[in-house]
Amino acid sequence: MKAASKPGTTALTVNIEIDPLIEVVRRHVKLSAQASRLIRGDLAKLFQHPEIRSGAKRAAAKPTAPADPVLSTQEAAALVGMSRPYIVARIEAGDIPLHQRVGNQRRVLKSDVLAWHQREQTQRRRAIAQLGADLDDEIFAG
Fold first, then answer.
1. What is the mean pLDDT of residues 116-139?
2. What Å distances lie between residue 66 and 70, 84, 139, CA to CA?
3. How far apart are CA 14 and CA 2, in angstroms?
4. For 6-58, how does the pLDDT look when each residue is reduced to its tens digit (9 = 90+)?
5. What is the SS3 assignment for 3-43?
6. CA–CA separation, 87 vs 21, rounded Å?
7. Alpha-carbon gap, residue 24 to 18, rounded angstroms
8. Cβ–Cβ under 8 Å, residues 88 and 106
9. Does residue 82 have a pLDDT over 80?
10. How far apart are CA 34 and CA 36, in angstroms?
11. Which of 66, 88, 112, 115 has its CA 20 to 30 A from that of 94?
């Protein structure tokens, strides 16, 4: 747990592993694989949205988008126009920080994906510029 404070408010962030909760349910009820996935998804939504826990419906309040959305690897790949396996490889290599795992799925922050993509583009531009300079030297040296 960590507490972050802003003037006048205190926010509390708690990371909860969902798999142990599923195991508790399995001790009492036989679950199919599909039921386990559905419960896991419902619990993930529940813990990500505290207003759901209180059961309060806020008709007047507008839902606000998170400051830094959490993306699946498929969403991250679509965002930067690359394949999902390539994004997974970049996460495994540590180039894109892993935000969290949900079961065997990876989640990343949008800001981390965009920062990595910007670094990649900059590195590619430099490599192309260097290649152009090397070719100019080779062609016009003789």
1. 92
2. 8, 23, 53
3. 7
4. 555 565 566 777 788 788 778 887 878 888 888 888 877 777 765 544 444 54
5. EEEECCEEEEECCCCCHHHHHHHHHHCCCCHHHHHHHHHHH
6. 29
7. 10
8. yes
9. yes
10. 5
11. 66
What is the rounded CA–CA span in Å between residue 86 and residue 120?
13
Q: Where are the domains of the chain?
A: 1-57, 68-142
Quick check: helix, strand or coil at residue 105?
strand
Q: Do the Cβ atoms of 108 and 69 come closer than 8 Å?
A: no
SS3 52: helix
Mean pLDDT, to the nearest integer, of 48-74? Answer: 66
In 3D space, the residue among 104, 43, 33 whose CA is nearest the CA of residue 73 turns out to be 104
Query: What is d(CA 47, CA 118) in angstroms, rounded to the nearest whole number?
Result: 32
Residues in contact with 70: Cβ distance below 8 Å, sequence separation at least 6, in sequence order: 99, 100, 107, 108, 109, 110
- Tokens 């606000």, residue? 64
How far, in Å, CA of 21 to CA of 132, rounded? 57
* Type of residue found at 30: K
